[in-house]
Write a structure and sequence with these properties.
The structure is a single chain. Helix 14 crosses helix 19 (about 435-450). By secondary structure, this protein is α+β, with helices and mostly antiparallel strands. Mean pLDDT is about 80; it is low at about 455-485 and about 500-505. Helices cover about 60% and strands about 5% of the residues. Strands 1, 2, 3, 4 and 6 form a 5-stranded antiparallel sheet that branches. Strands 5-10-9-7 form a 4-stranded mixed sheet. Strands 8-11 form a two-stranded antiparallel sheet. A hairpin with a 5-residue loop joins strand 9 and strand 10 (about 320-325).
């Protein structure tokens, strides 16, 4: 209880230091039209308070930093200047001397015999210092060499460089007494819920408990480095066959809850590449690699890096992009992947109705519970911006749309939207002409095939990077026939299910394989396209014969 009171006083001191309560109440309750670039007068005024809030969060430590980062993906709740400023949170703090990190050095084994009386006796400061130094020395001796000066310092952990088994390694170590501070902070945030509702002007359609739960879950994952070690090994496995993307190797025998030992990546941070005299062709190549690898994480693997800012991606000497810092990750199940793919497919094809229905599926909402006419109009505006917007960010603010119509989008969707905005922001700085859509299409095609969506073959054919040409009408016809065949196949199966289950399955499989193979040859076979045309026509005729005979 004494610890919580002390922390309350510390939080209060920081809030008063930056005069945040009255300024936040004024800024967050002011309703005005914001400029996305934050250049209008209202934005500039609010930006000053947003900077103060960012500095206060950085001063208060990991719990508040995570809250700010969560706020940065909620433009439906806070003005644009706060969204932008919270995305700039720097998790950098004054380093803790290595001897004071002793409580976290659980890889080191120091054998000391103490009597019960000695264990229960309160140690003097000098005795504690000697004990910490002894444990720090034992930890250093695990490695071939180890530099006790950190190369990076954050509110959750510090990173050191060493040599292990003759190879350079990075050693991430949690700061001591971290969990106690986080638990106290989370308890204080629970107490502050009524104040947060009042200051932010939150309505009944915002689940503040879910908001705080998201912060708690992020911190829970980050204070156990064994979780990050598992994440890294999973990413390494997902990219083992991708030549231009890498993930640091983990040394499992030298990892624990408080210590993570991994390969040291020698490279330049992407954020530093932006202003370096690197050929624009190289920078554009980096944007393609980053985008393709990230879309693979999301739509192929269903497991992605949730904080892909410019400091968490490095360029190695061979132009390989290395992802680092896997404390924050996200995952998407196949059902959500499928809904999102159908949603983005509809947006790409300017299908307002398809996008509207896809959005409702993502939010698990019923069309009868929303003003569907207004939702379609808003969706039409978003699609127009996505397909015809000028160069710049193309990812739309679906969170605002969800809040407007009381559609609770899943947390995974919101987390992913923020991550994609980070990726897009980094890539736009590398290449002002960057457009995520042109790079995304081939990866999304692979995702469609993997998920076996209801319109599988038709999606694969239409979602093409080729410009509109003489094949456009053929593709439209193929899609129409494929959809009709799907309906005929369902009808045929229902008629023959009881008496010819085995035969029907074999015919269905045969026709599907023939149709897909013929379509591929037709569109990509060049001089041999006639073979695909013959096969495609034959498969259609056979399907019709099966249906006629089944009547």
């Amino acid at each position: 209880m004494l610890g919580k009171t002390k922390r309350y006083l510390e939080v209060t001191r920081v809030l008063l230091k930056y005069n945040l309560i009255p300024e936040l109440y004024r800024d967050l309750r002011t309703n005005y039209i914001s400029n996305p670039e934050c250049t209008c007068n209202f934005d500039l005024e609010n930006r000053q308070t947003a900077v103060k809030l960012r500095e206060a969060f950085e001063e208060l430590g990991p719990t508040f930093i995570k809250m700010g980062q969560t706020m940065s993906k909620r433009p439906d709740l806070v003005p644009q200047p706060y969204v932008v400023e919270m995305a700039n949170l720097q998790d950098k703090v004054k380093p803790v001397p290595f001897e004071e990190m002793a409580e976290s050095l659980d890889l080191a084994c120091v054998c000391e015999y103490e009597t019960r009386e000695e264990r229960n006796r309160k140690k003097t400061e000098e005795e504690l210092k000697v004990s910490r130094e002894r444990k720090a020395k034992a930890f250093i001796e695990i490695f071939d060499s180890f530099d006790p000066e950190p190369i990076a310092c954050g509110s959750i952990a510090q990173v050191y460089k060493g040599i292990l088994e003759g190879k350079p390694v990075a050693v991430k170590i949690l700061r001591p007494n971290l969990i106690d501070t986080i638990n106290i902070d989370l308890s204080i945030l629970d107490d502050f819920k009524p104040v947060m509702r009042k200051v932010l002007g939150l309505g009944s359609n915002f689940d503040i408990d879910a908001f705080l739960l998201e912060i708690r879950e992020m911190l829970t994952r980050e204070v156990d480095l064994r979780t990050e070690a598992v994440n890294m090994q999973r990413f390494e496995d997902n990219f083992k066959n991708v030549k231009n993307v890498s993930v640091p190797k983990v040394y499992p025998d030298y990892c624990s809850a408080n210590v993570l030992t991994m390969e040291f990546i020698q490279g330049i941070q992407i954020k530093d590449i932006i202003n370096m005299p690197v050929p624009q062709s190289k920078k554009s190549e980096y944007t393609r690699t980053i985008t393709k690898s990230y879309l693979k994480q999301v739509y192929i693997d269903g497991f992605y890096h949730a904080d892909p800012h410019g400091g968490n991606m490095l360029v190695e000497e061979n132009d390989t992009i290395a992802f680092i810092d896997f404390g924050a990750v996200g995952s998407i199940d196949e059902e959500l992947q499928k809904h999102m793919l159908e949603f983005y497919y509809a947006i790409n094809n300017r299908d307002v109705e398809g996008a509207t229905q896809g959005f409702l599926k993502i939010g698990g909402a019923d069309a009868r519970d929303v003003d569907i006419h207004r939702l379609r109009k808003d969706m039409d505006s978003l699609i127009a911006n996505q397909n015809y917007g000028l160069e710049g960010r193309q990812s739309d603010n679906y969170a605002k749309l969800g809040l407007k119509y009381d559609i609770r989008l899943p947390g995974e969707f919101s987390t992913l939207q923020r991550a994609i905005l980070l990726i897009e922001g980094v890539c736009l700085e590398l290449d002002p002409r960057y457009n995520i859509k042109t790079i995304a299409i081939p990866v999304l095609m692979d995702a469609y095939k993997k998920l076996n969506t209801p319109k599988g073959a038709a999606f694969h054919i239409e979602f093409s990077t080729e410009p509109v040409d003489e094949k456009a009408e053929l593709r439209a016809a193929i899609r129409e026939i494929a959809d009709k065949m799907e309906g005929m196949g369902d009808k045929f199966l229902s008629l023959k299910q009881k008496e010819t289950r085995k035969t029907t399955f074999s015919k269905e499989l045969y026709l599907t394989v023939l149709l897909i193979a013929s379509t591929y040859i037709l569109l990509n076979g060049g001089t041999f396209s006639w073979v695909g045309l013959a096969g495609f026509g034959g498969s259609v005729l056979m399907a019709l014969l099966f249906v006629i005979r089944g009547k």
